[in-house]
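Re-run with default settings, no changes from the original entry. Doing this only to confirm the output is reproducible before filing.
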Amino acid sequence: MLSDTAAEAERVQVESARKMSVAEKLAQARALSALVIGLSRRAIARANPRLSPRELDVKFVELHYGKELADALAEDLRRRQALREACG
């Protein structure tokens, strides 16, 4: 197996994972996902410092889920903003 992890370290990781409950594994997966999403959003913000928070959200969706979904999100956000402005 090709790995940058030493064999002993990998053995310890696998053993530790086997001892974890399903809930612990899910919690670890959620935490890792949140970390990756946060790092991605931070990188997008650094690369696009002039975008508003809403525009950064749309850019995140575009990069991770595609332009079609990002365009639909942007349109929905515009529609919701127009409704808020019309109602109050």
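The CA atoms of residues 63 and 87 lie 33 Å apart. Helices lie at 7-19, 22-47, 53-65, 67-87.
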